[in-house]
C-alpha cells in the first residue's frame, strides 16, 4: 500500500503550506470564532461554519472521532445585540436565545456537525476578568476612565499575523480615538455599561459595572477549553485584523507563550453575483432565505466547489449547477442500489485531496470519477462513493431521497408505481380531451406526492409523452 499522504495546511501565521503536527494526537484542538447572535446568519457566515466542519470531519477521520476537540463559541454579549434588543423592545436574553436557536437550525440543515463544545461568552465572564487582571499585572494593559485597555505598543509582536506594521494598521483600521487611550491602537478589554445594558462587577478595582470587549471573549474561552497553546484557530479572512491579532496579543501576553494557536486558518471572502454583499445593495442573503428555495445539501455542495482560501462568488447559476449535479448523482446512486452508512471506507483519492489543504474542488472531481465507476458498476462502488462524499458532509441518502427514477420505484414499490402511472394516464387523457382544469388538478395531486412530470414531444409521432420521477422521498412515503 502506498504511504498515506500527510495533512498539509496553509498557515496564515507563516504564509506557507505546512505539515500539520498536533501537540497531542490523542487530543487535537481547534477553535473557530462563532456567530454574534442578533440576526439571521447570512451566507458569508455559513462559509467558515461549513469549511471548518469539513476540517473537523477530516481530523476525526485521521485521529479518531474521540480525539478531536472542536470549540466554536457563541458571542451573546455585544453592542449590536444591545442595539437590536432595544430596537425590537425585547429582553436581550430573549433575542440571543432566539437567534442562537435559528443559527443551530440553519446550520443543521447545511449538514454541519455540532462542535465538541459551544461556549457562550456570558458564561465565561469570570475567566475574562481573570485574564484582564493578569494583563494589567504584567504591564500589557491599563485602566483608564472605567475602561481596561490593551496597550499595543507594549508588545512588539503585534501585527505579525496580518503582516503589517503599526503605521499600516493604524491607517487601515478605523481606530476609535478616545481621550482615555494611551495610544490610538489600544483596544478595549472591558468597558463600562450604560443603564439597561448587560453588566457585571468590573475587574481591576473599576467601580462602575461593565462588560467585556469582543476580543477578550475568544481568548478566555479558548484558554478555558483548549489550554494556553492549542493546534488550530480558524475564522473568516475578515477576522485576521483586528480580531485575531488582538486575540493573539491578549493570550500570548497573559500566558507568556510563543504562540496562541500553532496553525491559523482563514477562509476567503464571499460576494454575491459579483458584488460585495450589503443590506444597502439589497443582495444580503440569509441562510434561512436560501433554505426556502435550495436544500442544505445544495448550498453546502455549492460552497465546497470553491477552495476555502479563494474568494467565492455566490451566484444563482452556480447553485443551479450544483443542484443539477446532485440530481444526477442521486439518480446514479439510487439506480445502482447504493446505501450509505454501510461501513464503507472513503476513497484514498478523496482523503488525499482533503489532506492537501482541504482541496474540496479536487475532492469533488474525485467524487465525479467515483460516480462514473458507480454508474457502470456494482453497489460496492456506490457505497465507497457515498462514504467519500460523507467526508465532505454530503449525505448520499439525501440525494437518493431527492430523486428516484420511475424504474427504481417500480422495482421497489410496484403498487405505488401503478397508482402513479394511473394518475399520469388520467392526466394525459384529460389533456387530450382539452379538460386542462382536470389535468392540472391531477398534476398538483402528483406534485403533492413528490412526483415531478416531464412532458416532451415524440419526434416521430408528434404526440406528447409524459415521463415522471420521484422528488423528495417524504411525500411518497406519506402516499404509501
Ligand atoms: Zn474570535
Biggest sheet overview:
4 strands, parallel
Q: What's the number of extended β-strand segments?
A: 16
Spatial shape: elongated
Radius of gyration: 27 Å
β content, as a range? 15-25%
* Distinct small molecules: zinc ion
The helix tally amounts to 18
Q: Average pLDDT across residues?
A: 90
Structural class: alpha/beta
Order of strands across the widest beta sheet? 4-3-9-10
Low-confidence stretches are 472-480
- Share of helix among residues? 40-55%
N- and C-termini, Cα separation: 48 Å
What does this structure look like?
- The structure is a single chain.
- By secondary structure, this protein is α/β, with parallel strands linked by helices.
- The chain is built from 18 helices and 16 strands.
- The protein has helices at residues 43-63, 79-88, 92-109, 125-137, 166-172, 214-226, 240-255, 287-293, 296-304, 316-335, 348-355, 360-376, 379-391, 396-402, 406-412, 414-432, 436-448, 473-479; strands at 8-11, 16-19, 28-32, 68-72, 141-144, 147-150, 187-192, 210-212, 230-236, 261-267, 270-272, 275-276, 312-314, 403-405, 451-457, 464-471.
- The strands form 5 sheets. It has a 4-stranded parallel beta sheet, with helices on both faces. Strands 5-6-7-8 form a 4-stranded antiparallel beta sheet.
- Helix 9 (296-304) crosses helix 10, helix 10 (316-335) packs across helix 14 (396-402) and helix 12 runs antiparallel to helix 13.
- It is elongated, with a radius of gyration of 27 Å.
- Residues 472-480 have low confidence and may be disordered.
- It binds zinc ion.
